[in-house]
Amino acid sequence: MHPVTSYIGLGSNLAKPDQQLQEALRAIHELKDTHVTQCSSFYASKPMGPQDQPDYVNAVVEIATKLSAEDLLSQLQAIEQTHGRQRKSERWGPRTLDLDIILYGNEQIQSNDLVVPHYGMKTREFVLYPLREIAPELVLPCGDSLVSVLKSVPKNGLEVIRKDVTWK
Ligand code: ROI
Q1: 167 lies in a domain?
Q2: What number does the ligand 1 atom closest to the CA of 120 have?
Q3: Looking at the domain assignment, is residue 30 inside a domain?
Q4: Cα-only R_g, the chain
Q5: Sign of torsion, CA 52 42 100 156?
Q6: Which terminus of the chain has fewer Cβ atoms in its 10 Å neighbourhood, N or C?
Q7: Which atom of ligand 1 is least distant from the CA of 58?
Q8: Residue of 26, 91, 95, 164 with catalytic role
Q9: Residue of 14, 55, 88, 98 to test ligand 1 pocket, by largest number of atoms within 8 Å of CB
């Protein structure tokens, strides 16, 4: 299989979020048949959902992978688990590490456990701005350009907290 370019969203707002993202980045790079090719800066973002939780740290990484989308999902879930994510009953509550497949090549996928492009990507500033940093020319599978989508999404306080992130 030819490698596919995929974008993964990383988020954390518990237990040293910056460190959670850094470790996740290394773990993604070490996945079989997968390499990190670019990573955005780390951003501080206001929580979407309940406001009585800490601010998030978010980033987007670009990978080249030979894993199928389903295999990639299960590998990412395994990384979330080893980083101590506890799934809580509260909807949209705080989390130690969240890894979401934002895009997988130009594919549109809708299965029981996977929807790609990520259903929230077009409204989430903490996905779109980091993505623009590493893929400014991107066109989504629906045909919309990233730049056009961004026009209707304010930054909502999003700010860069770390540049020049490395993963090796
Ligand atoms: N809010 C922000 N800012 N960043 C996230 O990664 C994030 N992830 C979530 C919810 C709870 C929706 N809110 C978020 O899952």
Answers
A1: no
A2: 12
A3: yes
A4: 15
A5: positive
A6: C
A7: 6
A8: 95
A9: 98
Indicate whether residue 126 lines ligand 1 (CB < 6 A): yes
Cα–Cα distance measured from residue 76 to residue 89, given in angstroms and rounded to the nearest whole number = 21
Q: Which domain holds residue 70?
A: 4-162
| % pLDDT > 90, the chain | 88
DSSP 126-149: HHHHHHHHH-TT-B-TTS-BHHHH
Task: Decide whether any atom of ligand 1 lies within 6 Å of the 130 Cβ.
Answer: no
Rounded average pLDDT over 30-41: 97
Q: Enter the pTM of the model.
A: 0.95
Distance of CA 66 to the CA centre of its chain: 18
User: What's the domain count of the chain?
Assistant: 1
Do the domain assignments include residue 168?
A: no
